[in-house]
Specification:
Order of helices and strands: EHEHEEEHEHEHH
Largest sheet: 5 strands, parallel
Strand content: 15-25%
CATH class: Alpha Beta
Strand order of the largest sheet: 2-1-3-6-7
Number of strands: 7
Structural class: alpha/beta
CATH architecture: 3-Layer(aba) Sandwich
Radius of gyration: 16 Å
């Protein structure tokens, strides 16, 4: 029997949170989630109910995903963090991955990208924890390589999206 995930959703639009939860359930994930939309509630929820996964919008009024990522890494460094955003700024996407996000999912690609991204980051996280419990600390380069490979998978998807946007721009002019 699998443990029900605790997911913290940082999202200012309730309808978007409903869509996120719908796709997670449709993908067969068992979870309990809490939606927050500000820094105070985010930090409070991290303390009171430590999440197994954080899904965060990029830009919220008065609070942003980069700050949330930094706070999460400071308080709960082992918790996977996925940006789920409508932002189409490729430079911002690259920056989120550089800052340590585990994945980035476009909101208009939830149906095809969210569950695979969640499964991947949870699988990668379990592997890191298992190695740590067995006292098998991988060399730093191995850990960095694992992280880099996961980010490259996310980035390759973004690259395809970017190429698609370019082609659509050429075709629809």
């Amino acid at each position: 029997m699998t443990k029900e995930l605790r997911i913290l959703i940082l999202e200012d639009e309730p309808a978007d949170a409903v869509l996120i939860k719908h796709e997670l359930r449709r993908g067969g994930l068992e979870f309990h989630s809490k939606r927050v939309d500000n820094q105070h509630d985010f930090m409070s929820e991290m303390r009171r109910h430590p999440p197994d996964l954080i899904l965060s919008d990029h830009g919220l009024p008065g609070f942003d995903g980069f700050t949330a990522l930094a706070l999460a890494r400071g308080r709960r460094p082992g918790v996977p963090f996925i940006f789920v955003s409508g932002s189409r700024n490729l430079q911002a996407v690259i920056e989120t991955l550089k800052q340590g996000a585990d994945a980035y999912v476009f909101k208009d690609r939830l149906a095809t990208s969210l569950v695979p991204a969640v499964r991947r980051v949870l699988r990668d996280n379990r592997g890191r924890r298992r190695r740590g419990r067995r006292g098998m600390t991988a060399p730093k380069r191995g850990v960095e390589l694992d992280s880099l490979l996961g980010k490259l998978r996310s980035f390759s998807g973004l690259l395809l999206v970017g190429i698609t946007w370019g082609l659509e721009g050429l075709l629809w002019k």
